[in-house]
Specification:
Blueprint (H helix, E strand, L loop, with lengths): L6 E10 L13 E5 L4 H12 L5 E5 L2 H9 L5 E5 H10 L10 E3 L5 E5 L8 H16 L2 H10 L21
Parallel strand pairs: 2-3, 2-4
Antiparallel strand pairs: 1-4, 1-5, 1-6
Length: 171
């Protein structure tokens, strides 16, 4: 079982260039993925549903190895949760976004949610976590912590946009 989502991300494609590309650009291109990532099935399914040419998948043992393959031109893009690939690229010294060597696609092919895993059939524990998360949301502490780590001035910003904890419950 899982708690309510407390983090929201997406899966796009990191690529080289000065402007973000649309996902359609990558039809038939070679995309890097970390070995054993759920992204492989998700991106293949998305491209099939869109009626686009399939992407060619190249697996890497780590995100860092995939980012370096992208930087050296061995692949056309690299994918996983946006926060992971952007953070990995930045830690390797690559600028991402405006005036950067890497960009993220303009849209995502899959959402990504962050929740807490709890033991199956332990609704009391799950509810306690959910009530606590909602209390943090309602009293503003969640936003303070979120902005510290993922706000506009963070190393890897992930805007909240319209995401919110649902359903709101009184704790």
């Amino acid at each position: 079982d899982f708690s309510v989502p407390y983090g929201w991300d997406g899966k796009g494609i990191l690529h080289t260039g000065s402007t973000p590309k649309d996902l359609t650009y990558f039809a038939g291109k070679t995309i890097g993925i970390k070995r054993s990532s759920s992204s492989e099935g998700e991106i293949k399914t998305y491209f099939v549903k869109q009626g686009w040419s399939a992407v060619n998948i190249r697996q890497f043992d780590s995100h860092a190895a995939g980012i370096e393959a992208l930087a050296s031109g061995q692949i056309d893009g690299f994918t996983d949760d946006n926060s992971i690939i952007v953070n990995t690229a930045m830690r390797a010294g690559h600028k991402v976004g405006t005036n950067g060597v890497f960009q993220l696609t303009t849209t995502n092919y899959s959402p990504a949610y962050f929740c807490l895993g709890v033991p199956e059939n332990d609704s009391d524990w799950r509810d306690a976590i959910n009530y606590s998360l909602h209390d943090l949301w309602l009293n503003g502490e969640f936003h303070r912590i979120y902005n510290l780590w993922f706000g506009p001035d963070a190393m890897c910003p992930i805007p909240l946009k319209d995401n919110r904890m649902e359903p709101f419950v009184e704790g």
